[in-house]
Write a structure and sequence with these properties.
Distance between the termini: 30 Å
Number of helices: 5
Helix content: 25-40%
Strand content: 25-35%
Structural class: alpha/beta
Radius of gyration: 19 Å
Order of helices and strands: EEEHEEHEHHEH
Largest sheet: 5 strands, mixed
Length: 151
């Protein structure tokens, strides 16, 4: 059972997410998510080469471009998974305030996918890749948002 806490910190990148609950002066991991598909390279998703097209005028021929790479699509799908997990935890009453910490590109995807009720609990966003940071570096980044963590 997840302990009830007021503040959660969601650390995330394109492949992994960790939800931390503030309990006193410590952060306790309450849930982790991982998406192995997002770790794959583009060529691992699509073994086939892109289609080819002819120019209207002349003899030019070129490869067709995809709008989004397979890894971008996998990251976007993982952002939705993380957002849904946060929404479910909020609905269960697991947190009242949320701090999002993620690399800038993924942070944008994550914020876009949060439902309105969960968006309203976001008290701060930190556009940094701190998922694998040491605890001291994480505490330093969160000190402005969570004064209890200042040392």
């Amino acid at each position: 059972m997840i302990p009830h806490t007021t503040t959660w910190v969601a650390l995330a990148d394109r492949t992994h997410a960790r939800f931390l609950a503030l309990q006193g002066r410590t952060l306790v991991t309450v849930r982790e998510l991982e998406d192995v598909r997002a770790k794959q390279r583009n060529q691992d998703f699509d073994a086939d080469r892109p289609g080819r097209a002819f120019d209207r005028v002349g003899m030019g021929r070129h490869a067709l471009e995809r709008e989004h790479s397979p890894t971008q699509r996998a990251a976007a799908a993982f952002a939705k998974t993380v957002a849904q997990a946060l929404g479910a935890a909020r609905a269960e009453g697991s947190f009242e305030r949320l701090i999002l910490v993620a690399e800038p590109g993924f942070l944008g995807m994550l914020r876009r996918d949060l439902d309105r009720a969960t968006q309203s609990t976001v008290v701060a966003t930190i556009p940094k890749a701190l998922l694998r940071a040491e605890q001291r570096q994480l505490f330093s980044a969160l000190a402005d948002q969570l004064p209890l963590l200042r040392r």
